[in-house]
Amino acid sequence: MRLKNNSSKRMASFLILFLVCHIALFQPVGMSAAGSEFTQSSTPISLSSSTERTVDYIHNQDGFSYSGLIPAQPLGTEIEMTGYQDWPSGFTKDGYAFAGGVFDGQSIWMLPFNVDQVVKVDSVTGQMTGYNDWPANLDLGGSYGGFFVGSFKGGAFDGENIWMVPYNASQVVKVNKATGEMSGYENWPVGFTKGENAFSGGIYAGSSLWLIPASADRVIELNTETGEMTGYDAWPAGFMKNQYSFTGGVYDGRNIWLIPYNADRIVKLDTETGEMTDYDAWPAGFTKNPYAFAGGVYDGQNVWLVPLNALQVLKVNTLTGEMTSYDLPRDAWQGAGGSIFQGGVYDGQSIWLLPYSDGIGVVRIDKTTGEMATYKNWPSGFSKGLAAFNSGVFDGQNIWMIPYSADRIIKLFSLTYTIEEIQDQQMTPLTVGYEPGTPEIKTMTITRNGTGELTSLAVALSGADADAFEISQPAATALNHAAASTTFTIQAKDGLAPGTYTGLVTVSADHMEDVTFTITQVVAGVYDSVISPVMASFDKNVTSATYADITTEVTWKGNTLLAIENEGVALVPDIDYTLADNLVTIKKEYLAGLPLGATSLTFTFSAGEPQTLVITVSDSTPVIDDVPDNDGPNDGSNGGPSGGSNGGATGGTNDGRGSSMPPNTHLISKAGATISFQGGQIVIPEGAWNTSFYLTINRLRSTEVLALADTLSLTGKERFVSEVIELKKDQAGKFHKEVTLHLELTEDEDFVNREGMNVSLYGLDEANQEWVELNNVKVDEEKHSISGTVDHFTKFAAIASQEEEKEAPVPVPAVHLSDISGHWAEESIHRLVAMGAISGYPDGTFQPNQPVTRSEFVTILVRAFQLNLEDGLTASPPFEDVQAHWAIEAISAAYAHDIIQGYSNTSFGPEDRMTREQMAVMIGKLLGLEATTFNSIFVDQGAISDWANPRVMAVVQRGIMNGYSNQAFRPEAYATRAEVAAVILRALEIK
Hints:
CATH class of the largest domain: Mainly Beta
CATH topology of the largest domain: Methylamine Dehydrogenase, Chain H
CATH superfamily of the largest domain: YVTN repeat-like/Quinoprotein amine dehydrogenase
Structural class: mainly beta
Number of domains: 5
Number of helices: 11
Largest sheet: 12 strands, antiparallel
């Protein structure tokens, strides 16, 4: 190696000092942080000349300590340092304390060199814990020339245990990370004798711990499951293994690269075959002197040799073996009182060289360009001396420099200038003409979540609607660790015209990238819905053309239908009327019960004035006179059977004496008869009555039926499903034989066969004013009729009753939420929280205007409707982005019930915000709602996606979702927690 002037003299002094003192004071240890980059962290890869990698995970190692694969988050270029020295009780930090460290995913384990405890440091709090329950028969080592020569150098983490590599200790020691329990291993291979200064570093690969030889004559593989050890000493031709040959090794996923200390070359060991390969094609102008390097850093393709007593960093391409040299800048080594660096760390982007000697700082190397920068911003109160640090550990975000002679462990962390994300804001809607000062005052919080201090904090409004809002500046203009949050306010101005106003709010600070969010204020106009026609007629005569449903068309004007009322009494949806798209149909069954004359039905909408439909009711049904008194029966000889009868019956002409009979009166002889009439049939057997008699059949009018239902208090779950027929005979007494009555059912087959529906034939007990079931009741499904037997005449009807299991009322616990008092969705929120479908936040708020994510909405929906995975349903959705998600169970249940679908076969987007049209589609699929016609009722109808339109219109028509007061639906707007509560509760009521 060629040096110039003072640099050469200083370098020579370094070498002389090191050669004299390296055994007594410090054995420079090979420390490196390697990063092999994989897309699948569990599968080692074989290197080849064509291998290309993208940084994803790195092998977390510092050359002689290995901690496994972790994701890397580069530190960047701005860093701070802080120290931790709150040592465990009973522990004294002096001398050359530690040689290496291991990261277990939460804590840093510092491995003892010249102390009798392993010390664990929590990577979040810095709290330290000591462990010294050493295995039996363990010898920690001795001294040489009056100096303690060290117990362990490096180690490895296998996912559960920390393995410590013996330097002068007599055993390999395993420490359980959970309990601190220790076990020793010294079953050395046949022919191998462990001497002094044996090993310098370890790698965990597969299920084995590999011990890197310092003065030992071979590499040792220890099977961590069995404790069996195997030696490898088939060194490359021409290579002579001597004392202090290597300072640890770097693992690339298959091979271990042994870093030369006193050796004259690099040696690569294949962990699958045990084959060794050497590399000594040093770059032009570079001479490999003894003790030149202390560790190496692996960046995913190259090994960087860390200079201990050299002024160059060497990069070795692991695919080709080609070496490249980079000169250290003067400020990196000037002022060094001895060796320069001991080990390094790779963070996924840069190599960090860690200082050993006093007077020098940490050096960062850009792995792509080789450019270097030096950092000496040590923590306050810390004075870095000779042999300060000898290794480093990367925890995925920070670098921890392990103290050798330093009095504390030092953490390097990046300076970041960031704040928590601020969601887009939706102000409480207003209606044009609102009172001054009534617009919502939105208090926004800015919270620092980076490590750097934020200064010159400010907010600004921009956009076409910026003048519609007033904004205050943050209460504090600087945020740091002592004051991490501040607030500002936004409010819409008074006097805004109808419309939607959106402003862009920008939060800025020194060094910070601007953070933006939108603020939206809707000011609604008032628009009246229109119905057409507003007048209609209905005739109660079933033979009339106007005995039919009445339909009126609604022009919504952005509103939704809330209710239809008759003198304050609400009509029942789907029973008294139906709503399909924009058509409201009043059912004839309801109309038949209205009084004669004009009836006004009032339509109430979500906004605007109510509308009135006037229905004129008439009844053209012919009136039949009562049957006249007769002197006696007639045997029918002068008048044969009339239409609709057989047997001994005469009806509808005369009584055999020339007097006329009404068409609903029949003369029945003692031979019996079968009489058919509109809506049914009666069979009177022979001998049922001893003489002839007159039978009168009357069908009750609609008003009489309704009056009868009211008088006998039929419940809402009971209804007539046939004509109500009154049978009379002109002679008192019960029949000697039961007669059989058949009535046609007026409801369709689906209704009659509905689960829990009971249909039977009843006669009216007028004395007790109650319906009594007939004998031998049978339903004829082919003829769609019902029959029964009875021994007397009265009023008869088929009655259907719906059996429903009565649920005990569930007590609703009181829930106090501090921010929903007076909110439009307050009642819905309380009810849904009480059900356990949604909850508030720990601070007692609900945050009703906070948007929900797709996974949150699905979870609330599944809880509210108590959806479970049932036999025969697919339990596992195909989406790759939910398999480890906290909401996987709810997403699986929703997928099994065909409520959700992803953006693709593999992507669901659980953390994406839920849009209003997505919410409508999921609700529609759950309830089986889908519209077939799409009349334009919203000003932004065209913005609704084609795939969502049928479900959106269906849930709007059913009143589950509404538009805004400005006649907009806003399909792409994010659904808020309040909207979700209201919509799900409405869906539950329909379900």
